[in-house]
């Protein structure tokens, strides 16, 4: 991921989790760590495809994803990046 950000001088990385059915603190922390590393390279992370049950779990776990931009779908995310 980080090599790709640097190589392509990406300004945004989209992490699409549409197919993800279960999230625990370890997975959520992985998102956060990836986002921090990407931000250190000067890019931002956008999380797309969060299903209602995943959103509920993240809130219940107290996971702070405030550093991530979110969009409902991958299409919405791509459209936002291209604006």
Description:
The protein is globular, with a radius of gyration of 13 Å. The protein has one domain (2-82): STAS domain (Transcription Regulator spoIIAA, 2-Layer Sandwich). A three-stranded parallel sheet has the order 1-2-3. Helix 3 (52-61) links the parallel strand 2 (44-48) and strand 3 (69-71). The chain has helices spanning 2-8, 25-40, 52-61, 74-82; strands spanning 12-16, 44-48, 69-71. It contains four helices and three strands, in the order H-E-H-E-H-E-H. The protein has 83 residues and is an alpha/beta fold. The protein starts with a helix and ends with a helix.
Write the layout of secondary structure elements.
Elements: H1 2-8, E1 12-16, H2 25-40, E2 44-48, H3 52-61, E3 69-71, H4 74-82
Parallel strand pairs: 1-2, 2-3
How do the strands line up in the largest sheet?
1-2-3
Counting DSSP H or I runs of 4 or more residues, the number of helices is 4
Q: What's the shape?
A: globular
How many separate domains make up the residues?
A: 1
